Amino acid sequence: MISARFDDLSALEEYLWEYATRGVRLSANAMAWPAFGTSGPMGPAVRTVAPRRIDRQARIIDFHTDRRSPKMVHLETTPRVSWMAFDEELGQQFQFFGAASVHVDDEAADSLWADQAIDDLEFYFKRLAPGTPVDAPESAIDIDSVDEATARANFCVVRTIVDEMIWGHLHEEGEYRARFQWRDGQFEGQWIVP
Ligand SMILES: Cc1cc2nc3c(=O)[nH]c(=O)nc-3n(C[C@H](O)[C@H](O)[C@H](O)COP(=O)(O)O)c2cc1C
User: Fold this and answer.
1) CA 43–ligand 1 middle distance (angstroms)
2) Which of 29, 116, 129, 145 has the fewest beta carbons closer than 10 A?
3) Does the model's pTM come out above 0.90?
4) DSSP state string for 19-58
5) Residues 33-56: pLDDT tens digits?
C-alpha cells in the first residue's frame, strides 16, 4: 500500500509537533530517542538523548542531563542546537533547530526533576562526572554514596526553543521535503528540494 503524501504545509506543521509529542509521551516513535547536536571545539558533536517535555505553543523541547557533562561546555560557547530523528518505517526524517538554554535551579528544572521516575533520575547519583576516565567499565552510579541533594545538583534541563524545522519524506512516488522558519510570530512553511 502506498503511504499518504502531505500536500498541505499547515497540516504538516501540525503533524511535526504531534509526532514529536507522541514520541516524548509514549516512546512511540523515533522522536523518543533522537540525536541531539551541539558544536564543540573539534566540530559538531551528536549524541542520543531523550526529550522529556514538549510545549508546542512555546516551541519548547526539553531534556535533562548532567551539568558536568562535556556538552555543557559546547552549549556555553555556542547555544545553537539541532535534533534529528529518522523514522525508518515511515521513511521520514525530522530535524528541529533552535536556541538552547540551561536550567539549573528554576521552575523548569524543579518541575522536571519532580516529574521523573526514579529510574530516570538514577543517572544523577553518579560519583564521577560523565567523561571521567576509569580503569574498568563502570557507570559510577552509586545510590549509597551520593545523596539526593548532590544528585539534584548534578541535574539540569536543556531547553531548545525551536525556530526551524525541516522534514523529509522518502516516498514511493518521489521524495520531497519541507522547511518551516519562525518569522514574525509564526512558522512560515516552504517546500524545498530534497
Ligand atoms: C537511548 C539513550 C538515551 C539517552 N538519553 C540521555 C538523556 O536523556 N540525557 C543525557 O544527558 N544523556 C542521555 N544519553 C547518553 C548520551 O547519549 C551521552 O552519552 C551523554 O549525555 C554524554 O554526552 P556528552 O559527552 O556529549 O556530554 C542517552 C543515551 C542513549 C543510548
Assistant:
1) 18
2) 145
3) yes
4) HHHHHHHH--SGGGS-EEEEEETTEEEEEE----EEETTT
5) 999 999 999 999 999 999 999 999
Whether the CB-CB separation of 163 and 97 falls below 8 Å is answered with yes
Domain boundaries, the chain: 9-117+155-192
Q: Is the pLDDT of residue 109 over 80?
A: yes
What is the CATH T-level fold of the domain 9-117+155-192, as seen in this structure?
Answer: Pnp Oxidase; Chain A (2.30.110)
Residue nearest to atom 3 of ligand 1 (CA): 49
Beta strands in 41-175 (DSSP E): 43-48, 53-55, 60-66, 80-87, 92-103, 155-169
How far separated are the first and last CA of the chain, in Å rounded? 23
Using a 6 Å cutoff on CB, does residue 38 contact ligand 1? no
